[in-house]
Amino acid sequence: MTQQFDDASQEPRDYAKFVWGGVAVLIAAMILFMITRGQSTPRRSEVTTKHILIGYDGGDPADKARALALIKEIREKIVNGDASFAEMALRYSNDPLSARRGGHLGTHGKGEMSEQYENYSWNGPIGELSEILQSGHGYHIMVVEDRYISPSDAYEEDLERRIRTNEGAAPTGE
Question: Structure pTM?
Answer without folding.
Answer: 0.66
